[in-house]
């Protein structure tokens, strides 16, 4: 498969389901995103995480823009 699959788990803490993070080894093209802004009430600090293969995250780190407060 020649694509990246992104799962946004912003509300995973409210679902009662197991995170897809535990299946990253099965799917090398998978990226799982999570945030502290929903369940932990930290929207003001804009803190999020991305989990995936080293290859994908290396590319994402090269192209990401810094967060700018407006």
Q: Could you characterize what this model shows?
A:
- It is built from two helices and three strands.
- With 70 residues, it is an alpha+beta fold.
- The longest helix has 10 residues, at 54-63.
- It has helices spanning 12-15, 54-63, and strands spanning 5-8, 30-35, 48-52.
- α1 links the parallel β1 (5-8) and β2 (30-35).
Using brief descriptors, characterize the structure shown.
3 strands; 3-stranded mixed sheet; 2 helices; 70 residues; alpha+beta
Number of strands: 3
Task: Report the sheet with the most strands, covering strand number, pairing sense and barrel closure.
Answer: 3 strands, mixed
Fraction in helix: 10-25%
The Rg value, from CA coordinates, equals 13 Å
Number of helices: 2
- In N-to-C order, the SSE pattern is EHEEH
What is the mean pLDDT? 84
Question: What is the strand content?
Answer: 15-25%
> Taking strands numbered 1, 2, ... along the chain, how are they ordered across the largest sheet?
1-2-3
Structural class: alpha+beta
Distance between the termini: 38 Å
Shape: flat
Unreliable segments (pLDDT under 50, ≥5 consecutive)?
none
């Amino acid at each position: 498969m020649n694509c990246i699959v992104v799962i946004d788990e912003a509300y995973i803490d409210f679902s009662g389901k197991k995170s897809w993070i535990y299946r990253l080894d099965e799917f090398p093209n998978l990226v799982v995103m999570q945030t502290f802004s929903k369940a932990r009430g930290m929207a003001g600090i804009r803190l999020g995480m991305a989990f995936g293969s080293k290859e994908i995250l290396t590319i994402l780190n090269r192209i990401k823009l810094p967060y700018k407060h407006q």
